[in-house]
Amino acid sequence: MNTVIYLHEIFPSFQGEGLFVGKYQLFIRLKKCNLSCYYCDSVESREDGVYSVNTGKQGIEGENPVDRKQFFQLLNSFNGVDWMFDTISLTGGEPLLQNHVIKWIRDYYSLNQKKILLETNGTLKDELQEVISDIDIVSMDIKLTLDELKSPEKLQTFLDYTLEFIEIAMRKRLYIKIPITKRISPEIFTAAVSFIGFRYPKLNVFLQDVFDDGLTMKDIMDFYSIAVCHFDNVRYVPQVHKLAGFI
Fold it and tell me: What is the rounded CA–CA span in Å between residue 54 and residue 49?
C-alpha cells in the first residue's frame, strides 16, 4: 500500500489550459514523471526535494515525502477560501505515478462534492483504470514530440495504446490537448489525428502551442487545418496563464 506522496506544490489559480480556461481551481502538482518533454514547464517537479503551499494569504514549505495526515493538514489551509473553487486540478509531473492520492482527495472532499480533474500525459492506462471511478474529468495530452514516434511501427504502437487510454478515460468527461511545436512533423501529426479522429471524431480537442517555441500563425493554422478534417470540435488555445502572468 502506498502511504506517502511526493508533492511539489498546492495553490489556487485560474485554469489556463483546455476546456475550463478561466475557471478558478485548486491545483495540486505532484512530483515525478515518466517522460522528459523538452518543453516541460515544471522541470523542477522531477526532483523529490521540498514542496510549497500558497493559499493566497500564507505560504508553507516542507520536506517530502508527505503522508495522508500531513496532506489533509495542508488542504485544511484552504478552509475559508475553498468555496471559490469547485474543481481540484491534479497535475504534475505525471499524477498517475502516484495515483493513490486521488483516493485521498476524494476522501477529503467527500462532503464538499469537489470535482477532480486529472491532467495526464496519457501513457499509463493501467494506473488510470485503477482510479477512474474516483475521477470526474480527464485532461489528456497526446505527446507527439517523442523521438521514438519517428519509427512507423512505434508510432502505430503508440496510437493503439492511446486509443486504449481514451476508451478508459471516456467513462468520465474527457478532453484532449495536443501540444504543438516546431518539432512535430506534419506526417506524424496527420497520422495521429486521422487515426484517433476516425474512431472518436466527437472528442473535444485543444491545440496548444508551446510557450516561446517560435511557432508562427501559419504554423498554427497548418496544424489546425489538418485537425479540423478529423475532429468536429477543435480549438486553438494558447497557455492563457502564461500570457496573463499567473505563473
Answer: 17
Hey, what's the cell of 27?
491545483
CATH code of 72's domain: 3.20.20.70
| Number of domains comprising the chain | 1
**Residue 16 is part of which domain span?**
4-244
Q: How far apart are CA 237 and CA 208, in angstroms?
A: 5
Instruction: Choose among 119, 118, 149: nearest CA to 134.
Output: 118
Residue for grid cell 501513457: 123
pLDDT in tens, the chain (247 residues): 689 999 999 999 999 999 999 999 999 999 999 998 888 877 776 777 899 999 988 899 999 999 999 999 999 999 999 999 999 999 999 999 999 999 999 999 987 789 999 999 999 999 999 999 999 999 999 999 988 899 999 999 999 999 999 999 999 999 999 999 999 999 999 999 999 999 999 999 999 998 777 899 999 999 999 999 999 999 999 877 666 666 5
